[in-house]
Amino acid sequence: MSTKSRWFLGAACAAMFLALAPTLTGIAVGKNITDFALGFGVALMFGALVTWKNHRIG
């Protein structure tokens, strides 16, 4: 796995944690913020898959 893929996965984990932390702790945060963080995490996971695939093939 390339370094870029690891950075993408680390950032995706952080975004997912930020999206789910208000739910787990009971803190009231706007739904738009959690939706954005969740979508951003998914996009970063997709980026990790793409860079990992390019590293593995090339």
From TrEMBL:
Transmembrane domains' residue ranges: 36-52
Kindly state which keywords UniProt assigns to this record, in alphabetical order.
Membrane, Transmembrane, Transmembrane helix
- Which top-level group of life is the source organism from? Bacteria
Entry keyword annotation includes Transmembrane: yes
Specify the protein name: SPW repeat-containing protein
Query: Source organism lineage?
Result: Bacteria, Pseudomonadati, Pseudomonadota, Gammaproteobacteria, Chromatiales
